[in-house]
Amino acid sequence: MDELAALFAPIGKVIRTGYKNTYDYRTRSLAHIFGGRVARQIAAQWREIAPDVIHINKQNLEDGLDLLDAAERSGISSIATIHITQSAGYLRARHAFARDWIAARRLRRYHGILVPTLDQRERELCAFAGSAARIRTVLNGVPIPDLSAQPDVRNSVRAELRVAPGGTLFVGVGRVVAQKRPLLWLEWAEKIRRSVPGARFAWVGDGALAGDFDRAVQERGLTDSVRRIAWTNDVQPYLRAADAFLHTAEFEGLSFALLEALAAALPVVVTENLLAELPFLTGDVSVALQPGCETALADRDGLAALGAKARRLAEEKFSFATMAANYERLYREALEQRA
């Protein structure tokens, strides 16, 4: 959060206060059944700050339920973005029925605009929250980098990762946690290496399973072809050095890392479950991880052609400018509704 606050400081005032996230409670969303005191405190703080619009950014359905309550109590116009709209039952969470009931109850009492980040997420959110009238989809956006700048970056990173001339570099970006399935990522790296001459792999990130990942690299004898890079604030050099983006998450909202890969002109190589969840990943920009996919992954010219289409998709649908314009429109709508 320190880095995020520092990035925002040049364009706005940063006010930070203590807040205990849903996932810091052992009982998760069950703790919010009697959470009115926290919501009242937050609402009072927001009234003192007196913003025109409150924008709540929720990771998933049960995250930040007390913030929704506080927004209602404050009387200030608000919207709430929800990135992952799959239910606790879908995610096979403990006490899923009770947690989904509590989240649905709070979402249905919230009168602000609910914002999913994908059309499919809109349908899921509508079914869960019980109303389509206040749901507006806004696709996530990422910077569209100038790929002609710093032409030496690609070569220097590929040299660092020991990618031979004519070799293929697959990059993954994300927290090394169960949701991202890093050990499945390694399994596919091992399979691809057997069929793609000169293939190299790099995962950029850190997390609870980093130790397991590193041990598995050693045990599988992959130290010559797989590297894990500790988390960095700038993943662009690794994306620019890559030939494809390898992603094996169990589920996603609308992954910023994946969108950054598209913007960097990388085809995305993903598991079939993600292709079903993210329908914009057509065969024009992606390769499905399934038996026989190694042929497509060994074709560097084919990967480059997919990458060019991936870049055009990012420019057309997933740019910062488009996302900002859509949110500005929703802020105005929220103000008009409150008025």
Helix-strand layout with pairing:
Blueprint: H1 2-8, H2 36-49, E1 53-60, H3 65-74, E2 77-84, H4 96-109, E3 113-115, H5 119-129, H6 152-160, E4 169-173, H7 182-195, E5 200-204, H8 210-219, E6 226-229, H9 236-241, E7 244-247, H10 256-263, E8 268-271, H11 272-277, E9 286-289, H12 294-297, H13 300-317, H14 320-338
Parallel strand pairs: 1-2, 2-3, 4-5, 4-7, 5-6, 7-8, 8-9
What would you note in describing this structure?
The protein has 339 residues and is of the alpha/beta class. It has two domains: 2-141 and 320-338, Glycogen Phosphorylase B (Rossmann fold), CATH 3.40.50; 152-317, 3-Layer(aba) Sandwich (Rossmann fold), CATH 3.40.50.2000. It contains 14 helices and nine strands. The protein has helices at residues 2-8, 36-49, 65-74, 96-109, 119-129, 152-160, 182-195, 210-219, 236-241, 256-263, 272-277, 294-297, 300-317, 320-338, and strands at residues 53-60, 77-84, 113-115, 169-173, 200-204, 226-229, 244-247, 268-271, 286-289. The strands form two sheets. The chain has a six-stranded parallel beta sheet with strand order 6-5-4-7-8-9, sandwiched between helices. The protein has a three-stranded parallel beta sheet with strand order 1-2-3. α8 links the parallel β5 (200-204) and β6. The radius of gyration is 22 Å and the shape is globular. The model has no long low-confidence stretch (mean pLDDT 91).
